[in-house]
Amino acid sequence: MTNPFSLENKIALVTGGGSGIGYEITRCLRDAGAKVIITGRRENMLQEAVNNIGDNVFYEVNDVTDLNKTTELVESITQKYGEIDILVNNAGINMKKPAVDVTDAEFNNIIQTNLTSVFALSREVAKRMISRKTGSIIMISSMAGYYGIDRVPAYTASKSGIEGLTKALASDWSKFGVRVNAIAPGFIETAMMQTAMNSDPDRMNKALGRTPMAKFGKPEDIGHAAVFLASEAASYITGVSLRVDGGNAIGF
């Protein structure tokens, strides 16, 4: 019997795949059988990720915010590796700052990185998926898309946008065989999160205290969720936002 969770013979593109959650998504997709191409701005980090994960992982240096190169990126990857079956929009940035101190330029930079570039790349990849009547696009959202979290107004706005974009694109493209879903990580133990939490013990205690599983998640928890949503096991799932949060969203 065929394994519905297998990604054998699939080609995946993971933005920001060189570190943190993106790294583990890449590793998990590869372990499930996919050929994975990762992108990012820092070539040394991408090279290190490819070397550490091993076979069937490749990289392309790219800045997702340079929208003029989005079409070129998709065409280049397609020519080198084949048609993209899975897109994981993982690249993103954050900034913690009182809302009254956030400049227009800072706000727009986060929206450009976390939302505008996600739409642009999804659109270009979807054009080819639609013509082949198959594909899975996965957004990386955030619990910030569910909560009102102080001092991260631009990030929260961008992830709320991702939540809406996921539904809109799923409504638009699912009839062509292209599924669009999101993963909303809870508090996941990455270097970025640990730095943020260590500088704000009250927020760390609050986050942990309302998480029913009483622990923070691991990056591979997000990777395993991505494998599921990319696979045939999720063939009738589209337009959802899967919370991987240890119950944080329903904790009291």
UniProtKB/TrEMBL annotation:
- Naturally occurring in which organism (per UniProt): Lacihabitans soyangensis
Q: What's the EC number here?
A: 1.1.1.47
Q: Where are the transmembrane segments?
A: none
Superkingdom per UniProt = Bacteria
Q: Sorted alphabetically, which InterPro entries does this protein's record hold?
A: KR_dom, NAD(P)-bd_dom_sf, Sc_DH/Rdtase_CS, SDR_fam
Entry annotated with the keyword Repeat: no
Under which name does UniProt file this protein? Glucose 1-dehydrogenase
Family note: Belongs to the short-chain dehydrogenases/reductases (SDR) family.
- Organism classification, top ranks? Bacteria, Pseudomonadati, Bacteroidota, Cytophagia, Cytophagales
Keyword set, alphabetical order:
Oxidoreductase
Which NCBIfam families does its entry note? PRK07231.1
Q: Please give the Gene Ontology molecular function terms for this protein.
A: glucose 1-dehydrogenase [NAD(P)+] activity
EC category name? oxidoreductase
What's a Pfam family in this record?
adh_short_C2
Residue span, Ketoreductase domain: 10-186
Specify whether tRNA processing is a keyword of the entry: no
